[in-house]
Amino acid sequence: MSIVTNYVCDKCGNIAHDPNQFWTIGVTAKCQDRLYSNYVIAPMEVCRKCLESLGIFPSKETKAAPEYSPPTLEDLIIDIVERHVSKNT
What we know:
Blueprint: E1 7-8, E2 15-16, E3 22-30, E4 38-47, H1 48-53, H2 60-64, H3 73-87
Antiparallel strand pairs: 1-2, 3-4
């Protein structure tokens, strides 16, 4: 008997068997006075393609594309939180 683990992208639904092809993203709040105190909201597991589409760690080819326009931090936070809210309602 064998066990197969599927990893599914929370943004596009892409399925893979390698956890190294997925990244956890979310919005984190941390108090600077406390070493280990932080709060993470809206964690998502996304594939490399979706990671790049969000403007996070784009490849050299993606950056060189004429249509590439990285989103603002505010746009990213809004997108991540909206996906979290719609997923949990």
